[in-house]
């Protein structure tokens, strides 16, 4: 199901407010720039808005089930059109992730000091019950 509620073009022909709400009962994605393999999902849901003439993007809620692993995320990008002022705030939450699945979910580009490879090769049995991360990039 895809639904839009918007009045997104104002009198100056600029994006002013676009709200979105996407749902998918299941599927998969293969984005090798970020993840090491194709990832299947169920119960995907994302909603949010593009505001302030397109300079602010808010993802209020992104959730998906990856088998037993539950993923939730919110994201705010401000001053999106100005590279000098761009700010990104992200909040992540993962529940019940099997440590054996870390390779699948840990982005391949986040491997500073070979940490990703070490964790994947040395943490092999268990469950991450609740993991949270708050990140602000400027």
Give the helices and strands, then pairings:
Layout (H helix, E strand, L loop, with lengths): L1 E5 L10 E13 L9 E13 L4 E11 L2 E10 L8 E12 L3 H4 L9 H8 L4 E11 L1
Antiparallel strand pairs: 1-2, 2-3, 3-4, 4-5, 5-6, 6-7
Walkthrough of the structure:
The radius of gyration is 17 Å and the shape is globular. The longest helix is centred in the last third of the chain and has 8 residues, at 115-122. The chain has two helices and seven strands; from the N terminus they run E-E-E-E-E-E-H-H-E. The relative contact order is 0.15. The protein has helices at 102-105, 115-122, and strands at 2-6, 17-29, 39-51, 56-66, 69-78, 87-98, 127-137. The chain is 9% helix and 54% strand. The two termini are 34 Å apart. The mean pLDDT is 79. The chain has 138 residues and is mainly beta. A seven-stranded antiparallel beta sheet has the order 1-2-3-4-5-6-7.
